[in-house]
TrEMBL record:
Source taxon at top rank: Bacteria
Protein name per its UniProtKB record: TetR family transcriptional regulator
Organism encoding this protein: Roseiarcus fermentans
Keyword Transcription regulation carried by entry: yes
Gene Ontology terms, MF aspect: DNA-binding transcription factor activity; transcription cis-regulatory region binding
Residue ranges occupied by any HTH tetR-type domain in the UniProt entry: 19-79
Keywords: DNA-binding, Transcription, Transcription regulation
UniProt DNA-binding residue ranges: 42-61
Amino acid sequence: MAHERGGVRSGRPRRELAGEVEERILEAAAKVFLGRGYDGASIDEIAVEARAGKPTIYARYPGKEALFGAVVAQKIRQNASFDSAAAGGSSSEDRLKSLATALLERALGSEAIALVRVAVAESRRFPDLASGVGRMALERGHETIAKLLGDFARSDEMAALEAFAPDHLAATARRFTEMVVLPIVMRALFGENPERLRAEVDPHIAETVAFFLAACRASGRAAGAPSVVPAGS
């Protein structure tokens, strides 16, 4: 049964409130980690901010590192929740540009950048923390982009390209994501002005998508794909 102590709840919440408690803990933890950094954050302060008892937090997360990982995982899930609407357009190039724009808009969000900075700042003392954050972000992003590329490759010229064959799709998605995101996000992590970076997004995406498509087309056609006769030939 839950008890009140000084305005802070402790104990196990009713089942219908568990999701609300979880969300409150993660939001409070994100606020404290962003405000104080990883080392300066404490479970005590997070408990007060979340209006939850420390036993409630420890029942879900064995320590601060696990809680930080859960906060990052939540932000990554939110940032990677794309659907086919994120890749709108009438041509392969337009659809890839739309997808790249959505990717960078999420990646440049202030909380996403700030949480990665927190992890990097603690990488010497907590190497698993930083590497885990990076691995989690990349894996989730690659999975999402691979699914989207596979979905719309079936309906246009990309279906005939070897780079979009099922056994190559994961590697293609990884290269696309890294080409689009890393050059801009790395500069954001080093503190470049966000507005200046946003002004560079459109030309960066246009250049990257053109290069990516040219490379995919140059890599050859998938085995058994029908030939395409250029218009007017």
